[in-house]
Amino acid sequence: MNTAVALIIFNKPATTAKVFEVIRQVKPPKLLVIADGPRSHHPEDIEKCAAANKILERIDWNCQVIIKSSHINLGCKQRIATGLDWVFQQVEEAIILEDDCLPHPTFFDYCEELLDKYRHDQRIMTISGNNFQFGRRRTEDSYYFSRYPLIWGWATWRRAWQQYDLEMKHWIAIRDGNWLQDILDDSTAVRYWHRIFQNCYLGNIDSWAFSWTLTSWLQNGLTILPNINLVSNIGFSTEAHNTKDIYSPFANHPTQAMEFPIKHPQFIIRDAQADKFTQQTQFRFSLISQLKSQVKKKLQFFS
């Protein structure tokens, strides 16, 4: 392969080792490592972060390794966002993996081919390795187009990333102008994403990825999603930052091999049916959170 790989690591040496072994199989010519530092109130992080970093010593192929590490903990949002800013100062395009996103080896050839095919197509902003349609598909093509930039193993270009707005400076105008309704045309989805984006804007959610979703939508950008799952998130744990529900249907979702040659769709049209399923299953309020919200409103009413 010829494409650079960006690997994001922190304090998960066990999963990092598994992801690294797949990277080792495909032997990228350039490995850009984004490493966060230990948290001040978690002394165990010192040893865990050191162990994760030590895995890089296993590189045994001809590879340029560049490491961007922080001695202090920047957190998920700042570390990944600033790290990817740095990545795209180094390269024009990259395949991006976090330390708990385990790819099938064919994920890399899939990304590389599509990075080349859509390099100058401004409509495409993300190439994802994720599929959570659980067997549902409309075509026999190798992939489809979506509004949802799923990022458990993905790739993009500098020309797309330069649009990224971590601080979501346009959110107030989008919120107050009710532009989410125009984007989503679904009142339930609007309520969900309004709450997500508002909390991100206020700093209540430590996520870089939701800012990327909003950036993509404001550019009317499309994501390529494979019609089989190519990357499994093996990091679900009660100790995880975001993926705490170990019983989630998205945890450890099995991967399959991409078949080559890739069968490209004839038209660049968003699969609205697949997106509706994604919204209903992956991006929805849980019953517990809805009940908590209702109780909170009632308590506020009587206080």
Principal-axes geometry comes out as globular
Topology order in helix (H) and strand (E) letters: EHEHEHEEHEEEHHHHHEEHH
Largest sheet: 8 strands, mixed
Oligomer: single chain
Contiguous helical run count? 11
CATH T-level topology of the domain at 1-99: Rossmann fold
Rounded average pLDDT: 92
Count of individual beta strands: 10
Q: How much of the polypeptide forms β-strand, as a percent range?
A: 15-25%
Radius of gyration in whole Å, from Cα?
A: 19 Å
Which CATH first-tier class of the domain at 1-99 would you pick? Alpha Beta
The computed structural class is alpha/beta
Low-confidence stretches: 287-302
What would you say the CATH architecture of the domain at 1-99 is?
Answer: 3-Layer(aba) Sandwich
DSSP helix fraction:
25-40%
Q: Reading side by side through the largest sheet, how are the strands ordered?
A: 3-2-1-4-8-6-9-7
Q: What is the straight-line distance between the termini?
A: 63 Å
Which secondary structure elements does this structure contain, and how are they paired or packed?
Elements: E1 4-9, H1 13-26, E2 30-35, H2 44-54, E3 64-69, H3 75-90, E4 93-98, E5 101-103, H4 106-117, E6 124-128, E7 143-146, E8 154-157, H5 158-161, H6 171-176, H7 179-184, H8 187-202, H9 209-218, E9 222-226, E10 231-233, H10 272-281, H11 287-302
Parallel strand pairs: 1-2, 1-4, 2-3, 6-9
Antiparallel strand pairs: 4-8, 5-10, 6-8, 7-9
Helix pairs in contact: 1-2
